[in-house]
Every structure is written in structure tokens, then in C-alpha cells.
Inverse folding.
């Protein structure tokens, strides 16, 4: 898929994280980019950076946990740029708290899982009108393992494994509608808050805590997103991005587990 002249929506692209970098990169590739976030000043800053470099962009406030706002976001893309070809379901939040009680889970699930579902719900009809396109959902390596070494942020992991599984069930959209839905599954990204924590640890402390020795740079995340959009052979696939960077596609025939242990009933 060629990017020049395409219309892209990037949710959660008003902060200093990967969303902004993805939006800027897509604009540099010739896309018209609709920046969206609950952070209006940050969203407008992303637009400023894009237009300063000669790109085309606009901003629309959107809380992805509210379906009516996501519907309005897609409508705004059609009204402003004439349609929609690419959706990056990048928005994430609010702040995760390890050990959160079940009654505290829904705000995270509403953004990280339901927000992606709403994005698909309203983007698919718009992308069909354009004859097809690409959607990239963003998950996390913290949702992959079946061991006890999780993030400790239950609603985040629940949402992110849901996003990944949702992606793999939509592979048929390529043949049906010429829409490819794929998922990026990054390890630790060098967003400001993660970088600040990472910097406080010695190499030995990182090893002991299971913290990677190197963080994934924001540009590496943006490059992986662009790769997923461009590769017409990928549909319903999950691309794991490790520090290094090292990228691995989860096998299309993977049953969801690598090993099993016998258990007597």
C-alpha cells in the first residue's frame, strides 16, 4: 500500500509518545493526518510540527472511550480530507496502577479495548467507501505471557490481549473488503514516563526486575507501523517489536501457547 495521498487517523497522538511520532511519520510519507487526543494543546502541537515540515494535518478532540466522539472523529476525517484510508488505534490510558481493584479497571479497559473496538466500528464503513485500506491496533508484550511475570496492571493486560485477539479474528477483511487489520505488539517504549523510570535503574537492577537493557525508540515504533501499513501480505497478524529493535511475526498457525504441562484430573 502506497502512503502518498492517503488519509490517516491516529488516536492518542497529542502527547509526547509514539502516537505523535506515528502521525509525524505518516505525514512525512505524504498522508493527510487527522490527529486526535483528549489533550487539545498537545494535539495542536502535533499538527504544528507536521505543518512546519510541509505536511497536511488537522486536529480533532476525541475521547475514544465515548463512541459518539469516535463516530464524530471519522466523520470529521471525511469532511476535512474527503475520506479515510488508515486508522491507527494508538490511544491508551488513563494512568495504570499496579494492583488496581476490579472496581477500578473499567476506565483503562474503556480506552484501550473499547476505544479500539469503536475505532473499527466507525472506520470500517468509511474505509470501504475508499475501496480498502489498513488498520493497525496497538497491543503490548505484557499481555503475551502466561507466566506470573506480568505488568501487574490487570486491566491494561486484559485490554491489550483483547486487542490482539480481535485483530487475528479479522484477517478475512482483506479478501472481503480489501481492508487489512494488523497489530503491533511493542516491548518497553522510550516514552517520557517509562524513560524516566528506566533511567533510575542500574543495569543490575534492570536485570533483576525484568526490565529491558534497551528501550524501543519512538522512531522505531513509527517505522514498524509504516511497515504494517505498507505490507499487503499481512492481514490479521501480530508483529512483536522487541528492543534492539528485533521484530517477530507471531505465526499465523500459532495455537496461543508454546508448551504445555500434563495435569492429572
Amino acid at each position: 500500500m502506497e502512503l502518498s495521498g492517503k488519509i490517516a487517523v491516529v488516536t492518542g497522538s497529542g502527547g509526547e509518545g509514539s502516537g505523535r511520532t506515528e502521525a509525524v511519520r505518516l505525514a512525512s510519507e505524504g498522508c493527510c493526518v487527522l490527529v486526535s487526543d483528549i489533550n487539545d494543546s498537545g494535539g495542536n502541537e502535533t499538527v504544528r510540527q507536521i505543518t512546519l515540515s510541509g505536511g497536511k494535518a488537522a486536529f480533532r478532540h476525541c475521547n475514544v472511550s465515548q463512541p459518539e466522539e469516535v463516530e464524530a472523529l471519522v466523520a470529521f476525517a471525511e469532511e476535512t480530507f474527503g475520506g479515510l484510508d488508515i486508522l491507527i488505534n494508538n490511544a491508551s490510558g488513563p494512568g495504570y496502577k499496579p494492583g488496581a481493584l476490579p472496581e477500578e479497571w473499567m476506565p483503562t479497559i474503556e480506552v484501550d479495548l473499547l476505544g479500539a473496538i469503536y475505532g473499527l466500528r466507525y472506520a470500517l464503513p468509511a474505509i470501504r467507501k475508499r475501496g480498502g485500506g489498513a488498520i493497525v491496533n496497538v497491543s503490548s508484550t505484557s499481555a503475551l505471557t502466561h507466566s506470573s511475570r506480568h505488568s501487574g496492571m490487570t486491566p491494561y493486560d486484559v485490554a491489550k490481549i483483547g486487542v490482539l485477539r480481535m485483530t487475528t479474528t479479522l484477517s478475512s477483511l482483506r479478501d472481503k473488503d480489501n481492508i487489512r487489520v494488523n497489530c503491533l505488539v511493542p516491548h518497553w517504549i522510550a516514552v517520557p514516563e517509562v524513560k524516566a523510570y528506566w533511567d533510575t535503574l542500574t543495569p543490575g537492577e534492570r536485570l533483576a526486575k525484568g526490565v529491558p537493557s534497551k528501550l524501543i525508540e519512538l522512531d522505531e515504533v513509527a517505522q514498524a507501523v509504516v511497515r504494517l501499513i505498507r505490507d499487503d501480505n499481512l492481514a490479521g497478524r501480530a508483529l512483536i517489536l522487541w528492543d534492539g529493535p528485533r521484530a517477530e511475526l507471531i505465526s499465523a498457525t500459532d495455537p496461543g501457547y508454546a508448551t504445555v504441562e500434563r495435569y492429572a484430573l
User: Anything to note?
Assistant: The mean pLDDT is 93.
